[in-house]
Amino acid sequence: MSFLSACERPLDARTSMSPEKTVVVFADAVDWSELEEPIRALFEEPIETPREESIYKVRRESPADFEFFSQFAMILIAGTHDRWGEAFSLLRPHMTLATLADDSAENGWLRTKRDLWAHPQLVGVLSGESGAEIRGRVLVQGTALRDVYDSFVRERVADKILRRTQSEAEERAARETGIKVPIPRRWLIRDFDRDHARVAIWKRRKKEDWQLLVQAMPGASERGLRERCRIWRDAVIGEVYDGDLIRSEGLKTDERSFEGRPGVRLRGLWENRGYVMGGPFETWCIPDPAAHRTLLVDMSVYAPGESKMEGLRTLQTLASRVELDPRWEADPR
Prior knowledge:
Blueprint: E1 4-5, E2 22-27, H1 29-43, E3 57-61, H2 66-69, E4 74-80, H3 86-89, H4 97-103, E5 111-112, E6 122-128, H5 131-161, H6 167-177, E7 179-180, E8 188-193, E9 198-205, E10 208-218, H7 225-240, E11 245-246, E12 252-258, E13 261-272, E14 277-288, E15 293-302, H8 309-319, E16 323-324
Helix pairs in contact: 1-5, 5-8
């Protein structure tokens, strides 16, 4: 299977609908019959929320309509080598047969290209000798494919929210806690705690609250990190947010790579029984051997009756840019 991503093409506001939500897939009908299930499962994974909501929406279109739907921000072209149907007629402007063969090598199934045009657009290509081969790769290695789209979306969100930041607050956080965290304009600072090396910021929008908390935990061992991550999360968040806790139902834990850094991710629902509040959360625990500490990054959204994904995407964008200063030492005071 080959994968080619990121062509920067001019976008038309009339046709570039829901750019951070919709993945348009171009595939022959025969190929789509084999690929629809794993591709939808990969991109339309639901988030934990009382109101049904998925990470992305998948929209399959005929290759014959490529000219119109090519204006979307996120595109995926899928097809088999032997069929070379309509879908693969779309590849010729982007790939030669030699490039395709090279991309199909076992270690080269994922390949990216960026900054070819003036406006952001992500174009992915899935190919293989058979539909079963492509399906198998999506099932086994699909996380890497989704990560490329997630990273692209975070870049777009960053372009919107990080054009201007609170530089003085960022410098203070780094100086007092050893944590480098971007703080967008109009975000509020909830907590700077030098004793616990902790920074918490939040944004209130109408009835919504988006909360980001970062704390440097002691040690950088990966052993037992899954269990420690949950214990840390409950202890720290319960203290800072007046009794918030994780609901055990639906909790998901997995090992992930965060911008090339291995770690553990928790996802599920948080609740505060005292305030009768709740919503989705995501927590990352990322060991940093150079700093001899582990980053605990927690993102939580409270948005009753509204979409939760915009808040989560914004928080993920900020979280992906958090760093520890390995030279930092706590103030001896």
